[in-house]
Amino acid sequence: MKGFILAATVSHLEKQYGDQFSSELLQSMNRLVGSVYLSMDDYPDNTLSILISNSADLLGFSTEKLAKLLGVFLFSELFAFNEKWISQNTNAFDLLRTHDMALNEIFRMAFPGFLAPSLSCTNISPDILEIDYRSTFLPGDVVEGLITAMFIHYGEKFSIERSASDPEVDYNQKIILRRKPKTIL
To answer: Which partner from 36, 106, 130, 132 sits 20 to 30 angstroms from 176, CA to CA?
Structure first.
């Protein structure tokens, strides 16, 4: 069921960088030119990481930078997919705390069998949120881009610290977000 993310990623990259790029990308992935990722098909857990890495190599970007950019794109896609997920919250912390309840339920209904990423949030203080991120498929850099887009959407500033969970499994991360006060001019 991971195909919908893979297909959206390839489509976005093709729109940004052209048909020639997508042909080279698919060849680097040992896929036939013109082949697509089918949205309802399942693919190995590391497919998105390989797709991002190969794309970054072709574009001359760091894998980390491209993954974060794709996270920002993913936010816009999720917003279009379910605007209520965004509009029912007033800030990024609230959105992150309701992620599993609101968004993952939609994914469970739309894509049976897909194990969506999980964000378990703990309030350390009103301006510090600790997240235990778990996913077998979506790299932490993509999630960092997604979180960045949330803060941009709400006009908030933040800092982020990431560390691998113990034990390190798949793309599990511990993320600490610190909301920065708004500056008044």
So the answer is: 106
Looking from the CA of 122 toward its CB, the CA atoms found within 13 Å total 8
Band (43; pLDDT cuts 50, 70, 90) = confident
- pLDDT per position as a tens digit, 135-164: 888 899 999 999 999 999 999 999 999 987
Q: Which residues of 21-49 are buried (b: 16+ CB within 10 A; e: fewer)?
A: bbebbbeebeeeeeeebeeeeebeeebbb
Residue 169 has a CB neighbour count (10 Å cut-off) of: 11
H/E element, 101: helix 92-110
Contact status, residue 55 vs residue 10, Cβ threshold 8 Å: no
For residues 181 and 185, give the distance between their C-alpha atoms in angstroms, rounded to a whole number: 13
Q: Is 113 buried (19+), middle (13-18) or exposed (0-12) by CB count in 10 A?
A: exposed
What angle do helix axes 92-110 and 140-153 make, rounded to 10 degrees? 120
Bond prior to 167 in cis (omega within 30° of 0): yes
In one-letter notation, the amino acid at residue 122 is T
For the record, the structure tokens of 138 come out as 């979506």
CA–CA dist 26, 169 (Å, integer): 28
